[in-house]
Amino acid sequence: MPSAVERLRDQTETKPRATPLKVAVLLPCYNEEAAIADVVRSFRMVLPGADIYVYDNNSRDGTVERALEAGAIVRRERRQGKGAVVRRMLADVEADLYLLADGDLTYDPLAAPVLIDRLISEQLDMVVGAREGEGMLARRGHAAGNRLFNKVVERFFGPGFTDILSGYRVITRRFAKSFPSASKGFEIETELAIHALDLRLSVAEIPVRYGKRPENSASKLSTFRDGFRILWTIAMMHRAVKPFKFFGTIALGLATASTILGLPVILTYLETGLVPRFPTAILAATVMQLSVLSLVCGVIVDAVAEGRREAKRLRYLELKGA
């Protein structure tokens, strides 16, 4: 009679291996004819079992043709903007893991297996490739803006990332399918980071080389226009995710302004029994009422936000992990 240990060993040896995880490489593209073929071939070389999707966003050059020649699965998103493309990709593609990158050859494909291995080995929900190298030095305005946005996000939502704007990341299916994206453009990366921080998901960063674009390839990112959109997105998500802090800050500012306006009126009244500055008194009282209303709004919206957070968490838990 075989022992219990021997029987367990036999069962383990005859048990079929787990099905390999299905990986999808997602490449949003707009006028990336110069680089997209090399990007597709490079990811095919380092991730031979992955499905590589190129989502064209109304390109006016030969992006689609070059991607097809390189063997990518090409689909189209007519609504302009990277946020719209990423939203469509995550909704349409079925996989266990999603690797998001750009089609401009700035991200190092050799880092892809490292990102995936880190996510699987530590059972994370997202691993971000934190950019470093000559590509970050090429446009100093972008690098300075990136540092500013990271500090703002850390102040509003807590620590977790040093490069929230990186377009190179791997996420699980449960993260992708529970992510309520609403972004239109390059603010999509900020939205991904804040979603992870809001639900307190397990995330990590790995430094990756970030190179320069090919000479005949132009960046679609506008330093000031897209920078303003990213800041606006952070502010609006702060209102949605942490409404009590958002409206409470406004209430505090209004209460302070009301006190500054009304205190001289009150002191004069205590000394003389008169209110000589009636308009100022009315203004101070009105501003204080607005302060109270803002505080009440914060309390109410905070309860709504907590309900939305619980709904997102339940949706996340319903989905199968990697």
Keywords for this entry:
7-stranded mixed β-sheet, Spore Coat Polysaccharide Biosynthesis Protein SpsA, Chain A, disordered N terminus, 56% helix, alpha/beta, 322 residues
* Secondary-structure element pattern, one letter each: HEHEHEHEHEHHEHHEHHH
CATH architecture of the largest domain: Alpha-Beta Complex
Please tell me how large the radius of gyration is: 26 Å
Number of domains: 2
CATH class of the largest domain: Alpha Beta
How many runs of DSSP E, i.e. beta strands?
7
Topology:
Elements: H1 4-14, E1 23-29, H2 36-46, E2 51-56, H3 63-69, E3 73-76, H4 82-92, E4 97-100, H5 112-121, E5 126-132, H6 134-138, H7 140-157, E6 169-172, H8 173-177, H9 188-198, E7 203-209, H10 223-241, H11 243-272, H12 278-318
Parallel strand pairs: 1-2, 1-4, 2-3, 5-7
Antiparallel strand pairs: 4-6, 5-6
Helix pairs in contact: 7-10, 9-10, 10-11, 11-12
Description:
This protein has 322 residues and is an alpha/beta fold. The protein has two domains: 18-236, Alpha-Beta Complex (Spore Coat Polysaccharide Biosynthesis Protein SpsA, Chain A); 243-318. It contains twelve helices and seven strands. It has helices at residues 4-14, 36-46, 63-69, 82-92, 112-121, 134-138, 140-157, 173-177, 188-198, 223-241, 243-272, 278-318, and strands spanning 23-29, 51-56, 73-76, 97-100, 126-132, 169-172, 203-209. Strands 3-2-1-4-6-5-7 form a seven-stranded mixed beta sheet, sandwiched between helices. Helix 3 (63-69) links the parallel strand 2 (51-56) and strand 3 (73-76). The radius of gyration is 26 Å and the shape is elongated. Residues 1-17 have low confidence and may be disordered.
